[in-house]
Design goal:
Elements: H1 2-6, E1 24-35, E2 38-49, E3 53-57, H2 64-72, E4 79-84, E5 87-88, H3 94-99, E6 102-104, H4 117-127, H5 143-154, H6 170-181, E7 188-192, H7 200-211, E8 218-222, H8 226-229, E9 235-240, E10 243-248, H9 250-254, H10 257-264
Parallel strand pairs: 3-8, 3-9, 6-7, 7-8
Antiparallel strand pairs: 1-2, 1-4, 4-5, 9-10
Length: about 270
Amino acid sequence: MAERSSLSATGLSGARLSGAGVAHALRLEGVSRHFGALVALDAVDLEVTAGERRAVLGSNGAGKTTLFNAITGDFPPTAGRIQFFGEDVTSLPVHERIRRGLRRTYQHSLLFRGLSVLDNLYLAVRGVSRGRYSFRRPRRDDAALRSARELVHLVHLDHVAGTVVANLAYGQQRQLEIGMALAGAPRMVLFDEPAAGLSARERRELIEILRSLPRHIGYIIIEHDLDVALRVVDRVTMMHNGRIFKEGTPGEIENDPQVQQIYLGGGHG
């Protein structure tokens, strides 16, 4: 496990120093998002500390993915303010938020299906680095290639590193997408339903990967599988109708009668 967490060559260790002295990695103040008459987010206040691992849970339509879209800039908020490590990023485009260390995955994998696992990760590393438009073939000791190989190991895909993505199992494609989100020096990663469609064995693999990430990398996970979500986070935020409904530790949320009644059907086994 320690070997998987070193990651000096990937640049992930650099996130430890970024934003030093800033208590909150992410702060949302009165964030709303309207689509015409539809209020998808309604004055959301949220604080996530540096290095924290947070789950955002709720039924379909609660506003979880819209929340992610507002944070990343895919659909900027209609009102409110978003701070990332003390900087106001409310009006910044997506690529500027990426440059500041914010990453995300999506519900549906976005991969280069005709390329290998290693090539996908290499392109992800190059995409967030200087000189990314160079067409020179990488040398054997190329730093970006070394970073890509470390990411292959981090997401447990060493045995399929040369395999074309189209030939991977679905769960392996989800693991690859996590690796791509970790390229460069992320300070926070947003995972959108990474366990969706996974088998029981693949879910166990996902839990191991998320638990083994360097602790200085914070993440927020949207997940319907509570057996995954509650095992990989420090705190939980419940959403309902575009608002924050309740917050607490995994144990507090799991044992909360109101949460069980509304979201778990009286318990989830």
